[in-house]
Design brief:
Elements lengths: L1 E6 L3 H10 L7 E7 L2 H11 L3 E4 L18 H19 L5 E7 L2 E7 L6 H16 L1 H4 L6 E2 L10 H13 L1 H4 L4 E2 L10 H18 L2 H16 L6 H19 L4 H9 L16
Parallel strand pairs: 1-2, 1-3, 6-7
Antiparallel strand pairs: 4-5
Helix pairs in contact: 1-9, 3-4, 8-9, 8-10, 10-11
């Protein structure tokens, strides 16, 4: 039977996670619950769990450092240095100028190239992704996605280009990670308030009675509603999840929405969401 540790500095969150899942059916058991990072680190060292469910920001120790450093500070530095090195050797040689700025799990690149010569930088960026994939042994579970912004000629238009690049990158929730994504479809018509109202009613009921079934139904209702929207964008999914997360955080008393939003921004393809070929017409 797999051992599971839950780590969160909010007691109610720990209790909710424990109640959400039929652990025995999954051949798992809760081996321990920690209320701060140092306590969680001690449990990880002593109990050697198969699965760790942790908050990112907790007193005493960053949740990302509890996995033995796989995604901790040293590993992030290695990833950053390797990405910069490959950018310098793979992409810059085909451009007149370029720069790359990496921060945490996100980065922004700026390339200057002649009009009408977008194919060479695009090919170089695909080659960059291939080389990053070839170095996967250094990165563990990290997968890279590149979103291309709209080409612009004036510096004052760079903000718009960055915005289109972010929209394109958010399409990884639909298309999957590890790709070069160039554009996103137009905004979908989502019955946002109706979806959130149903989610909220079910979620509040589950928290009140500490029952996992209404909580599971709240997630399923949100997922089903999103799947019913024709040609939904990755950003539409992300914004809806963030809205639902804020509602849950307010009700459960978990106030660290910055960490939640950062974690959502790292997500890859949303399981059970259709690929492009499966979207509704």
């Amino acid at each position: 039977m797999w051992k599971v540790i839950i780590a969160d500095d909010e007691k109610l969150i720990c209790r909710l996670i424990e109640a959400l899942v039929d652990w025995e059916k999954l051949n798992m058991r809760i081996a321990g619950k920690a209320e701060n990072g140092l306590e969680a680190l001690q449990m990880v060292r002593e109990l050697r769990p198969h699965l760790l469910i942790t908050d990112i920001r907790m007193p005493g120790c960053d949740g990302l450092d509890l996995d033995g450093g796989e995604l901790g500070g040293p590993a992030r530095s290695i990833i950053r240095r390797k990405a910069e090195e490959l950018f310098q050797t793979t992409v810059l040689p085909v451009c007149a100028e370029g720069a790359l700025y990496l921060r945490d799990f996100c980065g922004y690149g700026l390339l200057s190239y002649p009009d009408g010569d977008r194919d060479r930088p695009r090919h170089a960026l695909r080659e960059l992704l291939s080389k990053l994939e070839a170095n996967k042994s250094l990165f563990g579970q990290v997968v890279f996605t590149i979103g291309l912004g709209r080409p612009v000629r004036r510096a004052r238009e760079l903000g718009e280009s960055v915005a289109t690049a972010r929209l394109a990158a958010d399409e990884r929730l639909i298309e999957g990670r590890g790709r070069l994504l160039e554009e996103a479809p137009a905004a979908a018509d989502i019955p946002r308030q109706a979806l959130l109202n149903r989610y909220t009613n079910l979620m509040y009921h589950g928290i009140e009675i500490l029952d996992g079934e209404p909580l599971r139904l709240s997630r399923e209702s949100l997922r089903a509603g999103v799947l019913a929207v024709p040609r939904i964008r990755g950003q539409d999914i992300l914004e809806l999840v963030l809205d639902a997360g804020r509602i849950f955080a307010l009700r459960a008393g978990a106030g660290d929405m910055d960490a939640f939003q950062a974690r959502c921004g790292q997500r890859g393809r949303a399981r059970a969401f259709p690929s492009t070929s499966q979207r509704c017409a």
